[in-house]
Amino acid sequence: MAEKQEEPSNTQNGEPDNAEEGEEKKKLKREDLPPFEIVTGERLPAIFFKFQFRNVEYSSGRNKTFLCYVVETQGKESVTSRGYLEDEHAAAHAEMAFFNTILPKCESSLRYNITWYVSSSPCVTCADRITETLKKNKNLRLTIMVGRLFMWEEPEMQAALKKMKSAGCKLRIMKPQDFEYVWQNFVEQEEGEEAKAFVPWEDIQENFQYYEEKLAEILH
Questions:
Q1: Which stretch of DSSP H or E encloses residue 171?
Q2: I need a labelling partner for 48 at 20 to 30 A (CA). Which of 40, 76, 186, 215 fits?
Q3: Could you tell me which residues are beta bridge partners of residue 117?
Q4: pLDDT tens track for 138-174
Q5: φ and ψ of 203, to 5 deg
Q6: How are the residues of the chain apportioned to helix, strand and coil, as percentages rounded to the nearest 5?
Q7: 6 belongs to the catalytic site
Q8: Catalytic residue among 23, 95, 202, 217
């Protein structure tokens, strides 16, 4: 997705300007942090949702991806799990995080219906990984609901989205009702307060129609 912000140098932080020492400290710092934020059964902060999921046409400042997921296991005893991923701490995008941490828990002998609610559609690399994963795992059904389209004007991006569709991925633009669903099921409320109703932003329907038209043109 969008580029990640670089960490400030040691010199800027007032630390010794020693290349080897600086690199070692950076390495230790990265190891102290999780490679990506994985929250299962908890909710993302409302301020993140209101900013990151807003379906604006120009996504200035939105430099990371939030992915809320629902995994439904099909069988005699259906099981549903949910959570969210964000790609704040490492170069791995949220989509890759799902495949590297959540997907391995799925058994090849079972069938799964997976739904993602993502702040933005995947980049080319992630789109290709989605295509490859669906081709290799015929027991998976993936629906991706996105708030915005990422770099949709680029021919390479359009081709990647078409490949996803051909592999069986259902790509949809989030409607106002979908944003409300995410608000109710994935967004935390203030402690001690009653759940607040979802309040749509002014241009939510207009922007949904804009992106829906663009996606239809790409996938026709």
A1: strand 170-173
A2: 215
A3: 68, 145
A4: 999 999 999 999 999 999 999 999 999 999 999 999 9
A5: -105, 25
A6: 40, 20, 40
A7: no
A8: 95
**Model-level pTM greater than 0.90?**
no
Among residues 59, 52, 57, which one has the least CA distance to residue 86?
A: 52
By CB neighbour count within 10 A (0-12 exposed, 13-18 middle, 19+ buried), where does 130 fall?
A: buried
Tokens (6 digits) for 64: 């990371």
Contact indicator for 114, 79 with CB cutoff of 8 Å: no
Q: What are phi and psi of 118, to 5 degrees?
A: -120, 140
SS3 readout for 77-145 = CCEEEEEEEECCCCCCCHHHHHHHHHHHHCCCCCEEEEEEEEEECCCHHHHHHHHHHHHHCCCEEEEEE
Task: Please tell me the distance from the alpha carbon of residue 100 to that of residue 94, in angstroms, as a whole number.
Answer: 10
Return the pLDDT at 194.
60
Gyration radius of the chain's alpha carbons: 19
Q: Report the SS3 class of residue 69.
A: strand
**73: helix, strand or coil:** strand
C-alpha dist (Å) from residue 23 to 5, 15, 122: 17, 12, 31
Phi, psi of 179 (to 5 degrees): -65, -35
Structure tokens that stand for 84 in this block: 């969210």
